[in-house]
């Protein structure tokens, strides 16, 4: 639930951050990025403008003095003074042609004071200037008045746009005529094609007379007044009816001068560097690439920002998740620990219960054995008691007869019988006692002797032959005297039961590896089928109801295990069952060794 809520709030937080980032990007970043690229493009545009203006200015500066230089040639004055001299006309024509070629002018021509062309570099051409009158051109009037004529116009004869320079031809102070030099503007425009900006040159009437784009040439950038139109017509400067309007919408955007022409947006830079000629040069650079670059950079920035926000949010989410997982693990560890503690407590209690039960069972086992043996025991006690009675009666008789020797013999027999009964009772007492004894070195052979003494009544009451070989060297083993004896009694008793009261039992005590092994082997039927696993379990018995508790082997097993030994049992390959007690060898105690 908590995790889900934090997930939802994390989602909201991410959305909020993205929204905020979008707002900042749109209001603060985008205008800056766009302005940067527009200004950068404007800067480059200004450089182009500068280059174009410098080129034009250099050309004008180069051409302006030419008419004066040409006018100084004496042939020109002479021809003006003698216009009918055919040879001179021819020479002047050649001279003008050569001059035109050397200065790369499109035309060089000489006019008299009426504006009539006497000689021209184009004299050989079909549409020669010779014989034409240019008195209507302002450059003629300017030069005829003694000044330097400059003029831009569409050539009447050639149909080419050209720039005209004119200077008076003098004879001393007297002005005889005018020499004019015409340059076409196409080479400039051709040069501008390579520039990254469009170039537009307007005259002071606002008419485009040079442009890198052909469709912009000879267009008016401002609506022409009727007065301006009439002047153009009078000078035959441009074909007045063709001067359609080129609509240039200018505006300012972030300090950058923008222009829109026929729906295309340009960054505009204008310079009146050619003010002397009355020209305004404008460089127009398309704004779209700058905007595209800005858009791309902006997109990259936006992507980065979004990515950074997403990554940060992801990392935060991961960290939160880790903390949560950590908490969960801690909780689980805590739960597990308390469960374990509980389990340990439970086990301790169970063990305690088991220990108590086991102690009780040991006792029960003993009592059961006692019960089983009681019949045999009563027989065992009865027999000596009857003997004691008989010996006592005999002794009385011998005493009456005064046969003291016989009396002494009978009393001695009575005493031995009493000893024997005392021994039996001592064993029984030992057997019945709860095992409070310590575990330590016990003399193995003596323990077995005691066990045999306890088992004697049962053995005797049956028809069993016991073959006992005690261990050599009277070894000591680790154990408890009474309990080890109880185990041996148990095995012997089981063997007697197995042979069915008639058979043979082999009892051996011998070295086994580092320790000692006591084996009880019988020639009975061997272990019941599949019993080897279960026979050490409590209450496993194959004996009829009332005869076996199924506790003997399980108690014995635990006793031997307490001694650090092993109790085992199997069916012997040669028939019968064999049970073994493997015990740890013990040092002979000092007191015993001294004895
Ligand atoms: P109980 O003698 O009361 O049955 P034990 O724990 O002493 O209990 O023995 C368990 C079972 O192991 C016996 O019922 C018997 O089936 C089997 N058993 C023990 N000793 C022998 C043996 N010497 N030969 C064959 N089976 C045996």
UniProtKB/TrEMBL annotation:
<dbReference type="InterPro" id="IPR036890">
    <property type="entry name" value="HATPase_C_sf"/>
</dbReference>
<keyword id="KW-0472">Membrane</keyword>
<keyword id="KW-1133">Transmembrane helix</keyword>
<dbReference type="InterPro" id="IPR036097">
    <property type="entry name" value="HisK_dim/P_sf"/>
</dbReference>
<feature type="domain" description="Histidine kinase">
    <location>
        <begin position="376"/>
        <end position="587"/>
    </location>
</feature>
<keyword id="KW-0808">Transferase</keyword>
<keyword id="KW-0597">Phosphoprotein</keyword>
<comment type="function">
    <text>Member of the two-component regulatory system DctB/DctD involved in the transport of C4-dicarboxylates. DctB functions as a membrane-associated protein kinase that phosphorylates DctD in response to environmental signals.</text>
</comment>
<feature type="transmembrane region" description="Helical">
    <location>
        <begin position="294"/>
        <end position="315"/>
    </location>
</feature>
<dbReference type="InterPro" id="IPR004358">
    <property type="entry name" value="Sig_transdc_His_kin-like_C"/>
</dbReference>
<dbReference type="GO" id="GO:0005524">
    <property type="term" value="F:ATP binding"/>
</dbReference>
<dbReference type="Pfam" id="PF02518">
    <property type="entry name" value="HATPase_c"/>
</dbReference>
<dbReference type="InterPro" id="IPR003594">
    <property type="entry name" value="HATPase_dom"/>
</dbReference>
<dbReference type="InterPro" id="IPR029151">
    <property type="entry name" value="Sensor-like_sf"/>
</dbReference>
<keyword id="KW-0902">Two-component regulatory system</keyword>
<dbReference type="GO" id="GO:0000155">
    <property type="term" value="F:phosphorelay sensor kinase activity"/>
</dbReference>
<keyword id="KW-1003">Cell membrane</keyword>
<keyword id="KW-0418">Kinase</keyword>
<protein>
    <recommendedName>
        <fullName>C4-dicarboxylate transport sensor protein DctB</fullName>
        <ecNumber>2.7.13.3</ecNumber>
    </recommendedName>
</protein>
<keyword id="KW-0067">ATP-binding</keyword>
<dbReference type="InterPro" id="IPR003661">
    <property type="entry name" value="HisK_dim/P_dom"/>
</dbReference>
<dbReference type="Pfam" id="PF00512">
    <property type="entry name" value="HisKA"/>
</dbReference>
<dbReference type="InterPro" id="IPR017055">
    <property type="entry name" value="Sig_transdc_His_kinase_DctB"/>
</dbReference>
<dbReference type="InterPro" id="IPR005467">
    <property type="entry name" value="His_kinase_dom"/>
</dbReference>
<keyword id="KW-0812">Transmembrane</keyword>
<dbReference type="GO" id="GO:0005886">
    <property type="term" value="C:plasma membrane"/>
</dbReference>
<keyword id="KW-0547">Nucleotide-binding</keyword>
<keyword id="KW-0997">Cell inner membrane</keyword>
